[in-house]
Write a structure and sequence with these properties.
Its EC number is 3.2.2.n1. By secondary structure, the protein is an alpha/beta fold. The protein contains seven helices and seven strands. The longest helix is centred in the N-terminal third of the chain and has 16 residues, at about 20-35. Bound molecules: adenosine monophosphate (AMP).
Length: about 200
Amino acid sequence: MPLRSICVFCGASTGAQPIYRQAAESLGRHLAEQGLRLIYGGGAVGLMGVVADAALAAGGEVIGIIPQSLERAEIGHQGLTRLEVVDGMHARKARMAELSDAFIALPGGLGTLEELFEVWTWGQLGYHGKPLGLLDVDGFYAKLGEFLDHLVTERFVRSPHRAMLQLSESPAGLLNALRLWQPSATPKWEDRQPD
Ligand code: AMP
């Protein structure tokens, strides 16, 4: 399936290093230049605001999905192509997933990880066949990668499911990997005997 809309999960903070902001700017700009629509959490704060502003400044289309309860805290971005205000967090995530052909996580905190892991587990269960990946900034996700490999070694995650998560240091490299990725038919349940 050609990629048209890319969901970006990222911090509601900008983090401790300027390089995180620079990576969010670079990703937003790259998506717009490639004619890809950005789907994100709709806030104007942190890296969320940075990626959206960069895509808009480069002439891109940006759709934000924000729960009513967070519209004030995360400052619903008023300059987007479209801001959808939904009932709650579950509705937000479902709508972001519905609108998107692929998922990218920039650096972020618990919310970013939760959103990424949720779409990953949905893919692992075969609920969708959409690619996902990490935009790794200055080794930000290296330790997570080590832990994920440990889960495979300890046989809680199967290799094809671990391999679903792409990783690149550049937006172009990551989008290329997402385009080339093919869903695997490996079932999640390693220990289950065949029927
Ligand atoms: P964070 O990575 O914690 O800075 O949060 C980034 C985004 O994830 C923000 O828009 C949060 O509203 C969102 N978020 C926080 N908690 C959750 C959650 N439980 N599920 C999904 N998104 C969340």
